[in-house]
Design goal:
6 helices; mainly alpha; 217 residues; elongated
Length: 217
Amino acid sequence: MRNFFNNKSRALECDIDGYLDRVTTAGLIFNEGVKAYVTGKRDKFENKYKDITALESETDNVRRDIKHDLYSYMLIPESRGDVLGILETLDDIVDVCEKVLEKFSIETPKIHGFMKDDFLELADLSSKAVEEVVNGARAFFREIAMVSNYVNKVQFYEHEADDIEEQLKRKIFSSSEIEDFSHKIQLGYFAEKIAAVSDVSERVCERLSVYAIKRRI
């Protein structure tokens, strides 16, 4: 397998590494933010929300710089469409992480004690999916044979998140502790949005799998 980067594109390699680091960090902040909210640590939660808002903006800027360099300096022209496709779908993960914490900050839903563990587990599984999809993206550039290994891990975490999401929704809608149906709808919505982080990670993996096959041909 030929090296993905040549001597002319080493700086680009560093930029992409930095971009991937930021996506990993977004997944970790998202998890810590949900954890802080669910456990009632509102000051810490708001700090995490500020952190991910700043990171989302920074990540957009880095992605635009990479795109500019790819086209301006004709770097890795045969693969730049695939590279941009990976970076742009990874950006969707950061966007969803930021939006979920924004919704918590604005709507401040009441989280009842019987559902806290499920919300925490759901956020943890989504965060793990983000970590593994970033590992898959790094493998795409450096060790193509390992891509399928990380894709399998993301699919595992996404499936587990689906199960917890359904379990949580069933608890919410069968609960007599929550009297307002609108509150149940709201909590079900938050369960969906937290699980959406793993869904988007799986969609990135689908792209990675296709691009990895193209590189092997």
